[in-house]
Design a protein that fits this description.
314 residues, binds zinc ion, alpha+beta, globular, seven-stranded mixed beta sheet, Metallo-beta-lactamase, Chain A
Amino acid sequence: MDRRVFLAGTGITSGLAALGWNVAPLGAEGLVAARRYQVGSATVHVLSDGFISIGPEMLSGVTPEEFATLLDNAHIATDAHPSAVNAFLVEIGDRKILVDAGTGEIFGPTLGKLPSVMNALGFDPAAIDTVVFTHLHGDHIGGTVSQAGNPYLNATLRVASADIDFWTSEEIQAQAPDAFKAAFDLARSALDGFGERIEPFGAEETAIAPGLSTMALPGHTVGHTGLMLESDGDVLLIAADIIHVPAVQLAMPAVTIGFDTDQDLARETRVKTMDMVAADRIMMGGSHISLPGLGYLETAGDGYRWTAARHQYG
Ligand SMILES: [Zn+2]
């Protein structure tokens, strides 16, 4: 296989070890970190699972000095970027579609908040009819691999067949750097948790629910997929992991992260997608963009400016 696929595997092991642990405790316990938006006649809940600290050693294409300056520009007074981890719950008619499932119990104390957030909002996991995995990374699937088992008892899982093929391949796992090998086992466990209730999709646009369809955004993983929601003239692209470190990658979109399976394609897809969002003036959501997690992009200099979505009162 292409060596570049695991280019990032070398040299970031220490970063991986730090991921999720090199963090301060989340304050304000009990705060329900979520936002609700109407998109046409659909309702989109952005549900926070917490945050993950990402340091410059995880990134390619930015110096530690540039990284520090960009965090300072964004008024982030820590050495590592506190990147949000969000899931999205989309209600369309009586359908309840959960887009990604948070980290579950596999990361540190700043994460794993999704179950309590859903509980506080009155969402029973058993009432979710569809779970979509934008890709098979731990921060998106961990919530289905808890000690108690997969809580989404009645949901059909929709996920790209390309990601299933990649993350269940023993051949690819054997060639992966040690730091990545466990990720393959986790992906298999998450898929096993849905048993026969898995309906994979290909790279072509695929309907998940009325007005909600897939958009292939390959690079971060081979099957990384966004979701386009169109309802009564409103449009939202849930662009998943198109960006991980907004304070850095908005200004420097060429910067990639160690988890990108194909760094070049991830960069190309990021720029193409963000250019489209900016040109079409549509709303975008990101898995790693701080609450409200939805907003708008404009091109600015060599990068982009993010405007968070206005709070919807009432
Ligand atoms: Zn992610």
